[in-house]
Amino acid sequence: MGPLLLVLLLALILFGAGFALKILWWVAVIVLVVWLLGFVVRSTNSSGGRGRWYRW
């Protein structure tokens, strides 16, 4: 009974980690797209010569 519970626990942990990593990949892709769109929009619509939309 003990090894069966350990295998089930390991399967749940790996499933949860895979699900979380997939969500993190989607979040990273969305952030990258938003950053690129903001960079392109500000560089084509810059007034005063500053094309950066971030402060650093």
Give the tags.
56 residues, single chain, Lmo0937-like, mainly alpha, membrane, rod-shaped, transmembrane helix, transmembrane
Describe the overall structure:
The protein is an all-alpha fold and 56 residues long. The protein has one helix at residues 2-44. It has one domain (1-43). It contains one helix and no strands. The radius of gyration is 22 Å and the shape is rod-shaped.
Succession of helices and strands: H
Radius of gyration: 22 Å
The total beta strand count reads: 0
Question: How much helix, percentage-wise, in residues?
Answer: over 70%
- Beta content comes to under 5%
Low-confidence stretches: none
Helical region count?
Answer: 1
> Based on helices, strands and strand pairing, what is the structural class?
mainly alpha
Supply the number of structural domains.
Answer: 1
**End-to-end gap:** 57 Å
Q: How would you sum up the major sheet? A: none
Dominant shape: rod-shaped
What is the overall pLDDT average?
78
Keywords: Membrane, Transmembrane, Transmembrane helix
Protein name: Hydrophobic protein
Pfam family, one: DUF5670
InterPro entries: Lmo0937-like
Secondary structure layout plus pairing:
Layout: H1 2-44
